[in-house]
Amino acid sequence: RYGESFIREEGDGLVETFPDTMKKRTVLLRSQYGAYVKKNRAVIAVPSPDFRRVLVLSGEGGSYDAAVFEDGRMTGRIDGVGSCVDLCWIDNKSIAFRHGAPGFYGVRVYSCVDGSTSRIGAPTMNTNLSYSEYNGLLSYLTDGALTFCRVPGGEPEIWPLEGEDVSFAPGGNSFCLLYG
């Protein structure tokens, strides 16, 4: 089901639409998440892989409010989210995201289980964060150099490759990246 639909704000809330059939279902009502988003700003919903949780983001220009919802109620807030693109669910209980300001970005991981946030690696100019569910590797840039980290608990490993937008093959044993 993941990737077979999209979620956007419509009318009274966040609605999941299945393009093949145009069927819709309400994911969250505006009355459930409205107090946690910025007024007059776009609202973005990112479901966990099992669709039990939804990360709701609102903001612009490197400053986003972020809250996690489960069964229609807010279960956690994430401070310091700096991008609505540089973030990803690692599993059904953890979210990796970009934090910080230009030149001092960092990668953080938020735990939905206990609400804690941990830092991965050193500050960097850009993160270009992605995660491969195939092999369990988080990839990001450390000042342009490709960095891999197995999460949770792994140490970042910088590779002598520069590029962006890492994408792993379904087997998880090879990857491609944009080299510039």
Tell me about this structure.
By secondary structure, the protein is mainly beta. The chain has 1 helix and 17 strands. It has one helix spanning 30-33; strands at residues 6-10, 13-18, 23-29, 43-47, 53-60, 63-70, 73-81, 87-89, 94-99, 105-111, 117-124, 130-132, 137-142, 145-150, 157-162, 164-168, 175-178. The strands form 5 sheets. A 4-stranded antiparallel β-sheet has the order 4-5-6-7, with no helix packed on it. A 4-stranded antiparallel β-sheet has the order 8-9-10-11, with no helix packed on it. The protein has a 4-stranded antiparallel β-sheet with strand order 12-13-14-15, with no helix packed on it. A hairpin with a 2-residue loop joins strand 6 and strand 7. The mean pLDDT is 89.
DSSP strand content: over 45%
Strand order of the largest sheet: 4-5-6-7
Rg (CA only): 17 Å
Shape: globular
Element-by-element helix/strand order: EEEHEEEEEEEEEEEEEE
Which regions are unreliable across 5 or more consecutive residues at pLDDT < 50?
none
Biggest beta sheet summary: 4 strands, antiparallel
Task: Write a brief structural summary.
By secondary structure, the chain is mainly β. The protein contains one helix and 17 strands.
